[in-house]
Amino acid sequence: MPDKWKEHSLIDLIEIKHGFAFSGEYFRDDPQGDILLTPGNFFIGGGFKDDKFKYYVGPVPEEFVLNEGDLLITMTDLSKEADTLGYPAIIPKPSFGSFLHNQRLGKVLIKDGAPLNKRFLYYLLRTKGYRHEVMASATGTTVKHTSPNRILAFKFKLPPPYEQQAIAHILGTIDDKIELNRRMNETLEAMARAIFKSWFVDFDPVKAKTEGRQPEGLDADTAALFPDSFEDSELGEIPKGWNVCTISSIADLNVRTLGANDKLDVIEYIEISKVMRGEVSEVARYERGTEPSRAKRRLTHGDTVLSTVRPDRGAYFLCLTPPDTLIASTGFVVVTPKNSSWAFLHAALTRAEVGEELGLLADGGAYPAIRPEVIGGLSLVTPRNRQIVDAYERISQPLFKKADHNRKGSLVLAAIRDALLPKLLSGEIRVKDAERWVEAQM
Predict the structure, then answer these.
(1) What is the pTM of this model?
(2) Which helix (H) or strand (E) holds 404?
(3) pLDDT tens, 115-138?
(4) Can you tell me the distance from the alpha carbon of 264 to that of 289, in angstroms, rounded to the nearest whole number?
(5) C-alpha angle 196/200/206, rounded to 5°?
(6) Checking DSSP bridges between strand 155-158 and strand 76-77, what pairing results, if any?
(7) How far is 318 from 279, CA to CA, in rounded Å?
């Protein structure tokens, strides 16, 4: 530990302000009013997650309106493993309205004159030592709680301000690249989904041709593949000559299972809690024989993997070029296309409307679930002319592949960050050495 690093408790440097109990009568699910933050807006391990917002249209005390750059900590976590308890997030600028400081969240205020860099503090609150102390002192069984006093008791070595800033800059550069990849993936996948919706849900090219118009965005050869009229079906009007089929007619479900005689030395395991909307936040590694009993679903290229537990939650991912060692939990259903049309199948199964439908079909108590055959029985409209699906694959597969490449790169970057984090904050690695290593990796 460098000589200039001094031991502190967080109570010497910060205060933690409780959030406000906003009235439920003003809550809304649709985007209106202000955005009411919850622990669900924190990533496991720390960081801000800008989805699944709750909205509020009632009166707001001004002191509970958050500003861009404010630092929050989760004080309560409703999930079984308390995955986000005690972790921090720095608040970005909202796209509309204001972010509100809700109960179950603590706002971190650095005391006047305290020699503490906020960004450095953010990374300090993501270290294993801090996390261990939070979890060791947490209370509750089903719902886990921490308190300002428990967090403020955490002791650590604090480097001088200039070194705090340098450490935060190195780690922030990595996080900025990961965030850039995430936003790029949102754009890439939104493009693929928009084309799927236009062609196979809204039937825009067919509508255009029935009205004597050239379908927008299509070359003449592709436009010629679509019919110019509709016909009745059990799902209503569909393009003439197209079929209503089920997922099980174009895909197989759970066809590969990890067996006792499979020759694998290690298992790389994906659990449901580590998956959200295509992002896999963690792949656990086990020596063969020590993996969880639920590690049974073997994966292959082009699989769409969906959670059967709380299927409306959005725990799904696309599996491209996996290693043989990659295994998913039996809480997933693995959908394997019977042909090469994996982009079509993935876009079909991961539409928001499909998740909502599956959520309504789920049964059970605290963890409502569906059977795999429910997914196999889902209906969709497909063209008899295989060339239309092939055209979609030519456009969309590169988009999904680029997103997959970005995700794999982000996992590497996250591993670098997580390896550097404790070493930088303990002084084991100095800033200049870390800078050279990061530059070589990026």
Answers:
(1) 0.86
(2) helix 386-426
(3) 999 999 999 999 989 999 999 988
(4) 10
(5) 120
(6) unpaired
(7) 9
